[in-house]
Amino acid sequence: MNVVTTRFGTIQVRELDVIQVPEGLVGFRGTTQFVLWPDPEVSGLVWLQSTADPDLAFAMVPPQVAVSDYRVELRPGDRTALELDEAGEPSVFVILNRGEQGLTVNLQGPLVFNLARRLGRQLVLTSSRYAVRFPLGEPEASPAVLPGPSALRATA
């Protein structure tokens, strides 16, 4: 299957690589099919690319890039929606943003995936423990796997 993207041109993916996000993402509820695409230039950076909209892609990193002890407690409903059994561990990512103050990550809206079942879900954490725009490079942040902002495209 070919997926047209504005960042990478046309990419070839298998139908089995398409991830369903049945509820969409905050602000993009109508878009429910994506592929995870590793950035070819920046180690540790993964793109959540829409299969339907070439312009819609989210840069993501593991949350431990920002906060080493980041934890998400999945509610039973989240586990059911992701088809995770009791022992199943999800893959968790946070969206990376570029702002006036540099790179930030959204720790309150993590994306959780059951890669074996090709299912994803965005959580909205109600705890004020984590920030929506947590700056990378804070004292408690772990060593970055990402190089400086110049390596990220302006569309991130």
UniProtKB/TrEMBL annotation:
Q: Please give the SUPFAM superfamilies that the UniProt record associates with this protein.
A: BH3618-like (SSF141457)
Decide whether keyword Chaperone is in the record: yes
Q: What is its main location?
A: cytoplasm
Listed under GO biological process in this entry are: bacterial-type flagellum assembly; regulation of translation
Where does the UniProt annotation place the signal sequence? none
Where does the record place it? Cytoplasm
Which GO cellular component terms, listed alphabetically, does the Swiss-Prot or TrEMBL entry include?
cytoplasm
| Alphabetic keyword roster | Bacterial flagellum biogenesis, Chaperone, Cytoplasm, Translation regulation
Give the highest taxon in the source lineage. Answer: Bacteria
Q: How does it assemble?
A: Interacts with translational regulator CsrA and flagellin(s).
Q: What family is reported?
A: Belongs to the FliW family.
Q: What role is this protein assigned?
A: Acts as an anti-CsrA protein, binds CsrA and prevents it from repressing translation of its target genes, one of which is flagellin. Binds to flagellin and participates in the assembly of the flagellum.
Question: This chain belongs to which protein, by name?
Answer: Flagellar assembly factor FliW
Kindly list the organism's lineage: Bacteria, Pseudomonadati, Planctomycetota, Planctomycetia, Isosphaerales
| Gene of this entry | fliW
